[in-house]
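Annex B. Sample input.
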Amino acid sequence: MKTRTRIILKSLTLSTALVTMAGLTSSGCHVLGGVQPAASAVGGGACAADFSAKMNSLQASVDGLAKVSAEIRGDVFLACQNIANDLGADGVPAVKPASATDDDMKTACNLAKGAIDAQVSGGVKITLAVEPGYCEVAADAQLSCEAKCDVSGGCDPGGVEVRCEPGQLAGECTAECSGQCRAEANVDVACEGSCQGTCTGECSGTCAAEDGNGGCAGACDGTCKGTCSGTCEIDAGAKVACNGTCKGECSVDFTAPSCEGALTPPKCDIDADCEAGCDGQAKFEAECVPPRVAVAVDGSASAKLASTLETNLPAIVSVAGTRGKLVLSATGNVANAFGDAVTELANLPGCLLVFAGDFAGQVATSVEASASVSVSVSASASVAGSAKAG
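Annex B, continued. Sample output.
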C-alpha cells in the first residue's frame, strides 16, 4: 500500500510538469511519445545520456511487468475456472483468460477453493506429490541492460557464472555435482539424498508405495538411494555424477549455465534506479517450468477431483511459489525507481519533452500491474493451501 501511494503521489508531480510542458509545445515543439535517442535537444535543452539510459531501462521493465502480470492473472484464472467448473461450482465467470479481471480471478479461485474444501469436509483425503518447478532469469537481458546504464562504457557487469546467487547456478555438469540433480525429459536421475518426486530403490524412511520386491516406488519421506523422477537433493558434502541438470556446484565449468535465482549487484558503480530496471527485466522475462503434481484421493471423492487437480494445480503452485515470488521480488523496486524517475523528470525540461508522452500512463500501469501480481499470488496460495490441507 505504501508503494502504491508513493507512486500515485509522484505521478501527480508529473501531471504538474505536463502543464509546464503544454506551454512549450504551444510554441511549436513536438512531444515525442516513446523512448528516444539519448541526447535529443528539444525545447528546454538536451536530455542527458545517463537519464535516457535509466528511462530506457525502467520503461522496458514496466513493459515486462505489465506483460507478466497479465500472463500470471490469466494462468491462475484459467486453472481456478477449470477446477471450479469440474467440481460443479455455480457462478464461475465465463470469460476467456485474456479478458479476465482481478475480480474474475478472485471469484473463480474462491469458488475453486470452496469446491475443494467441500470435498475435504465430506471425508475426502487428498495426497499430493509435487516435483518442484523452477525459473531461469533472463540474465543476458540484465547484463546487456546494465552495460547501457554506464554511458561511459567503462562498466563490465560480469557474466552469469560470477553474478548468479550462490547455489542457484544450473546447467549440464560433465563431472561431479553437489547441490541438486534434476531429472529432465522424463529420464530419472541417480540419487542419494532427498527425492522430490518418485524414488525407485531404497528409502531410509517412509515410502508411499512399494514395488513387488519390497523396494520403494513412490514418494520417499527420508533418504532415497536409487533413482529419482524429480529433483534429488544431494546429501551435504557428497558429489555425484548427474545425468540431468545440476544446480549448485560442478567440479568443472557448467555447460550452458543459467541462473535460477537473482543476479547479485554488479561490482561497478551504476545508477541504482537504472539497475532496478535491469533487475526487473531479468525477473519479469524469466522462463519458468511449472511443477508436476501427482494426486491421490481417498474417500467418496468427485470422479474429476484427482484429474482436475493434477491438470490445474501446477500453474497455481507455480504462481504461489517460485514464479510468483520471483516476480514479486522486483515489483516494489521497479515501482519505487519509477516514482523516483518521475520526480527527477519533472525538473528536466529537455527529458520531459522526450519522455512524457507515454510515461505518465506507464506510471499507472506499473502500479496496477504490481497490485495485480499480489492478488494473483494471494489467490493461488489460497487454492494451493486447500489442496495441501486435504
